[in-house]
Design brief:
With 216 residues, the protein is of the alpha/beta class. It contains 8 helices and 8 strands. The chain has a single domain, classed as Uracil-DNA glycosylase-like domain (Uracil-DNA Glycosylase, subunit E, 3-Layer(aba) Sandwich). The chain is globular and about 45 Å long. 42% of the residues are buried. It binds uracil and iron/sulfur cluster. The site of iron/sulfur cluster (SF4) has 16 residues, from helix 4.
């Protein structure tokens, strides 16, 4: 059993040096215990300045192995939605609320386990630093974990969806909350799945409009 000490990431987050310094420092983070069982840190993907920042929950099994965000099944749904919203993934900044994979071993399989509030809050200094250097015009929080990290409080997606909120860090960046792309994979009925996908695409479009139309 891992030792669960959570000093929080702040002391590992460099104050200067921009995105490059953040990416370089992240592997050393010991802000919570999740680094112990993960393969590696999964930091972010995208340019150092982007008008849109998309925030997920945490890396999954495949992301943990490859060291890149959104390369597994949820990432493929996200890619489809990005295309449907007429955006370019290369122009977006993609990151996660929690930078190490949390899982439970079952035999040979590693089963995704939701990060606890303590993990989200411990990892938050990284996300705040990313917002400070990337300076997006809009943040898209995908799912309740991302929303908690960006907004600094718990929200229900259904209650805040379609509204423009503000990130809780010093920047107060316009923030929209939507579902997590993996939730789209769990809807069994095809018509409902398609409706949910289109609503997710519409949320991305709305965010792109806040970001000045292009979103790239
Ligand atoms: N789910 C996430 O929230 N992030 C990833 O990077 C992959 C899956
Ligand atoms: Fe640091 Fe976040 Fe990894 Fe915890 S999950 S060790 S706070 S980078």
């Amino acid at each position: 059993m891992a030792i669960e000490e959570r000093p929080g990431a702040q002391e590992w987050v460099p104050e200067h040096g921009g995105l490059g310094a953040l990416r370089q420092a992240a592997p050393d983070c010991r802000g919570c215990e999740l680094w112990q069982d993960a393969t590696q840190v999964v930091f972010s993907e995208g340019p150092a300045r982007a008008s849109m920042m998309l925030v997920g929950e945490q890396p999954g099994d495949q992301e943990d192995l490859e060291g890149e965000p959104f390369v597994g099944p949820a990432g493929r749904r996200l890619d489809a939605a990005i295309d449907a919203a007429r955006l370019d993934r290369n122009g977006l900044y993609l990151t996660n609320a929690v930078k190490h994979f949390r899982f439970e071993r079952r035999g040979r399989r590693r089963i995704h386990e939701k990060p606890a509030i303590g993990h989200i809050d411990a990892c938050r200094p990284w996300l705040a630093a990313e917002i400070a250097v990337v300076r997006p015009d809009v943040v898209v929080a995908m799912g309740t974990t991302a929303a908690r990290s960006v907004l600094g409080r718990n929200v229900r997606i259904g209650e805040v969806r379609g509204t423009i909120l503000e990130s809780a860090d010093a920047s107060g960046t316009p923030t929209v909350v939507t579902v997590h792309p993996s939730s789209l994979l769990r809807i069994p009925e095809e018509a409902a799945r398609e409706t949910a996908f289109q609503a997710f695409v519409a949320d991305l479009r709305r965010a792109a409009e806040i970001a000045g139309g292009g979103g790239g």
